[in-house]
Design brief:
The protein is an alpha/beta fold. The chain contains 14 helices and eight strands. Helix 1 (10-24) runs antiparallel to helix 2, helix 6 (132-147) packs parallel to helix 8 (172-184) and helix 10 (225-233) crosses helix 11. The radius of gyration is 20 Å and the shape is globular.
């Protein structure tokens, strides 16, 4: 079952539907002219809407139901992906996918949050909200990558770690904290990519790396706008105001030194052209891994530590 699309994107959806209908019609000069006009109108509409996106609209775009997820990027950029399951302690967590693949013919470890498309898959993957076993599975794969000197890429797209009682009973906070500690000292290159939502510690547990990349219309924050509004004003309807205050857009985070590079998305967002987005991301990974492979282990870990110790900007009043 499809999720509702935000109202500000409805004109784009309507034009896309009109284009699809015109493409199905018999070819004629009149139809061809109408199709070209519709495509031109679509481009102009996208340019107009995306010229002045608000932080709240960016949040909605980051949650778009057709946005590419981790498995889409893996299959779009890599070959021979072998998924591994389980944390060897309790269970497997489908909210996180992890395994090994070939990137440009070289082995690489790949880990990421995975949202669902259908209702059944959303439930099975718990809406990409991992439990402790998901983070422990991720760390198991990372340590295996370190043992074989393989680079690691993580894809971040989660509303946050699952806050249920069962997750807390099995040590949710400890699992996240352990990942932060262990990722900080892994002796291999790590590139983290925020592809959609980067929510709180649930995102940060896969987010300690040598390079932090962020898609143009992704978000990254200590809390969701809805959660922030509920805490500050006891009113989730003020989420739009909270989004403004949280400074969660890629542009803000690049300015604050939280992310290293913002990756341009196709016109209208990554969901408009997933293959093009995967190609852009693949180029960025090549560039950053090439730089990181030149560093010796001691320098790699030292730079990573320094990166996070000096992160952010602070204002005194």
């Amino acid at each position: 079952m499809a999720q509702p699309v935000s109202s500000f994107l409805e004109p784009i959806g309507e034009l896309q539907q009109r284009i699809r209908e015109l493409e199905k019609e018999q070819t004629s000069a009149e139809t061809a002219q109408a199709l070209e006009a519709a495509r031109r109108e679509l481009r102009e509409t996208i340019d107009r809407i995306f010229a002045h996106l608000t932080p709240w609209q960016t949040c909605q775009l980051a949650r778009h139901p057709e946005r590419p997820y981790t498995l889409d990027y893996i299959h779009g950029m890599m070959t021979e992906f072998t998924e591994l399951h389980g944390d060897r302690r309790f269970a497997d967590d489908p909210a996180i996918v992890a395994g090994f693949a070939l990137f440009d013919g070289d082995p690489i470890a790949v880990i990421g949050h995975q949202k669902g498309r259908s209702t059944a898959e959303k439930v099975r993957r718990n809406f990409a909200m991992p439990r402790p076993e998901g983070y422990r599975k991720a760390l198991r794969i990372m340590k295996m990558a370190a043992r074989f000197s393989l680079p690691i890429v993580t894809f971040i797209d989660t509303p946050g770690a699952y806050p249920g009682i069962d997750a807390e009973e099995r040590g949710q906070a400890e699992a996240i904290a352990t990942n932060l500690l262990e990722m900080a000292r892994l002796p291999v290159p790590i590139v983290c990519v925020i592809t959609g939502e980067g929510g709180s510690g649930g995102a940060l547990a896969l987010g300690v790396g040598d390079r932090i990349l962020m898609l143009e219309h992704a978000i990254y924050s200590v809390i969701s706008p809805e959660g922030c509004a509920a805490i500050l004003w006891k009113d989730q309807s003020r989420a739009e105001q909270a989004a403004e205050a949280l400074r969660l857009t890629a542009r803000d985070l690049k300015h604050l030194g939280i992310v290293d590079e913002v990756l341009e998305e196709p016109a209208g967002g990554a969901q408009m052209d997933p293959p093009a987005m995967a190609a852009t991301l693949a180029d960025a990974l090549r560039h950053h891994f090439k730089q990181l492979r030149r560093l010796k282990t001691e320098a790699l870990i030292s730079k990573r530590y320094k990166k996070f110790r000096t992160m952010g900007k602070y204002l005194e009043r």
